[in-house]
């Protein structure tokens, strides 16, 4: 809410009385007026932004801070900026899928036999059956050379071969299940890790520098929250008062020195 004509006159009168100087209106803004004295006031200032309330001043400080962050993020401390960088849910899912695909390419079926108990158990059963089959085949070979009756043994061999085929099918299914579980685990871990882009891309993987990551097209920056945090931390005067960073209160009006 801007200043009315009456409020402008009241502000000018109050500042003239406080500063002991002739003060003129420079321009009006939606949230404040800018005034200037012909000579310096006792505090060394001669130009001010004048607000009707600290709430209005805070809003302008935040808005200006947002503009500065958008136009020149390099002017802020990178460690502080980290807290306000994030990846949108859509981009996180896309990046997670790509990262998981890359990691899963490094897994062979034999890897799941080593790390998954079900796969390992079935593989051991196959190994035992194959050993038993080799003994039967050796025995069959010997019987053939002696021209002995080997029908029963041949039936046992066929049965073992059937069991091995079934177990191999079981192993294939178990590996597929283990692969799917691993993929799901990697997806959840990666999606969660991307909650902090700096940790994931800079500290853990070294894929980006802080500065380069800030420019990446998948990075979103919460300008409003960052600007508000800066104002809450440093104070309104830090961003509006160019002289000493301190405001003056004059008959209910809030002044920030700009020169």
Describe this structure in words.
It is a single chain. This protein is an alpha+beta fold and 259 residues long. 63% of the residues lie in helices and 12% in strands. The protein has helices at residues 5-19, 54-71, 78-81, 89-104, 109-115, 117-145, 151-193, 197-204, 210-215, 223-234, 236-240, and strands at 23-28, 33-37, 47-51, 85-87, 219-221, 247-250, 253-257. The strands form 2 sheets. A 5-stranded antiparallel β-sheet has the order 1-2-3-7-6. It starts with a helix and ends with a strand.
Features:
two-stranded antiparallel sheet, 259 residues, 2 domains, 63% helix, rod-shaped, alpha+beta, 11 helices, five-stranded antiparallel β-sheet
Helices and strands, in order, run as HEEEHHEHHHHHHEHHEE
Count the beta strands: 7
Please describe the biggest sheet, giving its number of strands, its sense, and whether it closes into a barrel: 5 strands, antiparallel
- Briefly note the structural class of the backbone: alpha+beta
State the separation between the terminal residues, measured CA to CA.
25 Å
Integer tally of domains: 2
Tell me the number of helical segments per DSSP (H or I, 4 or more residues long).
Answer: 11
Q: What is the mean predicted local confidence, pLDDT?
A: 90
State the share of residues found in helices, binned by percent.
55-70%
């Amino acid at each position: 809410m801007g200043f009315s004509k009456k409020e402008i006159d009241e502000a000018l009168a109050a500042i003239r009385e406080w500063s002991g100087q002739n003060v003129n209106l420079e321009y009006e803004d939606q949230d404040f007026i800018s005034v200037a004295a012909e000579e310096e006031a006792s505090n060394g200032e001669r130009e001010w932004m004048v607000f009707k309330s600290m709430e209005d001043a805070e809003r302008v400080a935040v808005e200006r801070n947002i503009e500065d962050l958008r136009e020149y993020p390099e002017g802020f401390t990178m460690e502080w900026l980290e807290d306000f960088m994030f990846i949108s849910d859509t981009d996180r899912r896309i990046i997670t899928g790509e990262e998981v695909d890359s990691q899963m390419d490094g897994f062979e079926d034999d890897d799941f036999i080593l790390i998954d108990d079900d796969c390992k158990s079935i593989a051991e059963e196959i190994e035992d059956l194959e050993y038993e089959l080799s003994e039967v085949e050796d025995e069959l070979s010997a019987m053939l050379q002696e021209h002995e009756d080997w029908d029963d043994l041949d039936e046992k061999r066929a049965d073992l071969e059937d069991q091995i085929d079934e177990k191999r099918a079981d192993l294939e299914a178990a590996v597929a299940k283990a692969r799917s579980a691993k993929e799901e685990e990697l997806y959840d871990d990666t999606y969660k890790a991307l909650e902090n882009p700096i940790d994931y891309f800079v500290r853990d993987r070294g894929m980006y520098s802080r500065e380069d990551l800030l420019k990446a097209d998948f990075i979103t920056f919460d300008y409003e929250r960052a600007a508000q945090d800066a104002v809450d931390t440093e104070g309104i005067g830090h961003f509006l008062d160019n002289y000493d960073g301190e405001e003056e209160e004059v008959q209910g009006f809030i002044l920030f020195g700009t020169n």
